[in-house]
Amino acid sequence: MQLLKNPDIAGKEYQEGEQLGFWNVREYVLFRDGHVCHHCYGRSKDPVLNVHHLESRRTGGDSPGNLITLCETCHKALHRGEITLKAKRGQSFRAEAFMGIMRWEVLNRLKASHPELEVNNTYGYWTKHARIANGIAKSHCADAFCIA
Q1: How confident is the model over 49-104, as pLDDT tens digits?
Q2: Is the confidence at residue 15, as pLDDT, over 70?
Q3: For residue 71, which phi and psi values (nearest 5 degrees)?
Q4: Residue 57: phi, psi to the nearest 5?
Q5: Is 71 within 8 Å of 45 (Cβ atoms)?
Q6: Other beta carbons less than 10 A from residue 4's beta carbon
Q7: Quick one: which of 35, 57, 75, 124 could link to 70 by a disulfide (CB 3.0–4.6 Å)?
Q8: Rounded to an integer, what distance in angstroms lies between the CA atom of residue 54 and that of residue 56?
Q9: Domain residues of the chain, as ranges?
Q10: What's the confidence (pLDDT) of residue 72?
């Protein structure tokens, strides 16, 4: 997932994610948000801060992109339905994670169901090489053509 967030990542940077140096996700989110409520921006003067899930933890998880800092006053008002938040959930990598898990199963089932066909796995750098070698501009259709 880090490569999707930062295409230039390399080496030890994989081990040094955005939460490096923080005790837990809550501490990171509070720091990221400047220890300020993202609804009232401190106008309530409430010193108690909560980390709120934008999408339920069950469906949205505990990633920082699904969390936001709210003061106790705004947090309670939100749960009573008195206020609504403008903030939206950050980027989700649910589809990418699913494909990372399922790709080998799909490949193996395809090979088993069509033994008469040559079915192989491919990688983006192979596709890129084929596209550049053939002087084809980058597009999803062009990439599909290059690996076919």
Answers
A1: 999 999 878 877 788 888 999 999 999 999 999 988 887 766 666 677 777 788 88
A2: no
A3: -75, 165
A4: -60, -35
A5: no
A6: 10
A7: 75
A8: 7
A9: 2-79, 94-147
A10: 96
For residues 101 and 74, give the distance between their C-alpha atoms in angstroms, rounded to a whole number. 39
Contact 40, 73 (CB under 8 A): yes
- Please report, as a single letter, which amino acid is at residue 114: H
In contact, 49 and 43? CB cutoff 8 Å: no
Cβ neighbours of 138 (radius 10 Å) = 10
pTM for the complete prediction? 0.53
5 token code pair: 């967030």
For residue 67, give the DSSP letter: E
How far apart CA 61 and CA 63 sit, in angstroms, is 6
Specify which residues 48 forms β-bridges with: none
What's the CA gap between 46 and 33, in Å, rounded?
Answer: 16
**Tokens 């996700």 identify what position?**
25
**If DSSP codes are grouped into helix, strand and coil, which group holds residue 68?**
strand
pLDDT digits (tens, 9 = 90+) for 18-36: 777 888 999 999 999 999 9
